[in-house]
Write a structure and sequence with these properties.
With 126 residues, the protein is mostly helical. Helices cover 46% and strands 0% of the residues. The termini are far apart. Pfam families: DUF413.
Length: 126
């Protein structure tokens, strides 16, 4: 699947809390990204949490990417950053209606149409 020295997890990686229907069915990940997460996710999580130590240059680079995300180059690094952003980041919620109340202070409101109407009336009168 992927030409890498990155260790596969001992078991498949799932996040039933945030992605209970699976990574691909969430609509956020492609099938390829889902496969990478399920196969390598346990190792990436272990490296991130410090329960595993890096055993090769790819895993060392992965640890560097966790500190500096802009260094991400491989598919594994990018998919893990995407996963952490979606799973741990704040979920966006879009609505059609806002709940913000208008300001009570209307003293700053200027009705420009009313000013123009009075100016026209004044000019017609002269």
């Amino acid at each position: 699947m992927l030409d890498t020295t990155f260790r596969q997890g001992k078991k498949r990686f799932y996040d039933n809390k945030k992605f209970s229907r699976g990574f691909a069915k969430s609509g956020d990940f492609t099938l390829t990204e889902e496969n990478l997460l399920t196969i390598y996710g346990e190792t990436m999580l272990g490296l991130e949490q410090g329960t595993l130590t890096a055993e090769n240059p790819e895993e060392t680079q992965f640890l560097n990417v966790l500190q500096q995300p802009e260094l991400a180059q491989t598919k594994l690094e990018k998919v893990w950053l995407k996963y952490t952003r979606l799973a741990r980041g704040r979920k966006r919620f879009h609505t059609l209606h806002g709940h913000n109340k208008p300001d009570d202070d209307v003293s700053d409101y200027v009705d420009t149409d009313a000013d123009n109407d009075s100016m026209v009336s004044d000019q017609e009168a002269s």
